[in-house]
Amino acid sequence: MSVTKVYSFESNAHVSQALGEFIAHASSEAIAKHGRFTVAFSGGSLPATACKHLRDMQSVDFSKWYVFFADERCVGLDSVDSNFRLVREELLDPLVQQGRSVPADQVMVINDTLTDSTQQVADDYLGKMQSVFTGAKTKFPEFDLVLLGIGPDGHTCSLFPNHPLLEERTAWVAPIDDSPKEPPHRITLTLPVVNHARKVAFVASGAGKASTVRAIVDERNVHLPATHVAPVNGDTYWFLDHAAAKGLSVNKPSEFKL
Fold first, then answer.
1. Sheet of 186-189: strands edge to edge?
2. 3, 207, 212, 251 — which has fewest CB within 10 A?
3. Quick check: bond before 180 cis, omega within 30?
4. 198-242 pLDDT, tens digit each
């Protein structure tokens, strides 16, 4: 049975430490079970929060990681808008310096020569996903972990309120050309893919996120895209600081334990 666990911490620094421990543990579990760890990162502040302590955890076997992106902007890989660039700066480059890098062919980036067509970017990224998630019974990939943030409007990945992509039921990855948040041209994992993950972790900090967190976690407001993240065979975890968690009264935070 799928469960939702909410954790609240004194500060974003404490969130980062606990989240790093959580990811390291999820990595070890997955590698022990099936020899690899598949993880999808979203952008924004999440890579910095997730990777600050994780990159220095010597127990993590990054050589077995396969890194994907929950959504990506259709820009050059060196663009300040690139989610890959965020993860590269916060995790991949520091690991290279430590001699513990994720193999380059296991970091699944968009083909930035195709960015004039979001559909072509999405099609190419689908091929990269299929090269990792293979098998006759693979209707949807099963990520070991998907790491997500939330916007003030309740969006997650690049799935926005009232957008037709919320109704997508078959595609793994979809293009979007009318994102209400800049830049407008992106690709995103779809809800069925996110909901087939073994673990989904949301990360949010600050009082500005408190009302949105409450609307999703306590009120289950169906108009907010993040509310529809409900893994069919996995669990959902919320990593919040006290400011972001202050409005919760139904699903109150529990003690963080691995």
1. 71-73, 186-189, 173-176
2. 3
3. no
4. 999 999 999 999 999 999 999 999 999 999 999 999 999 999 999
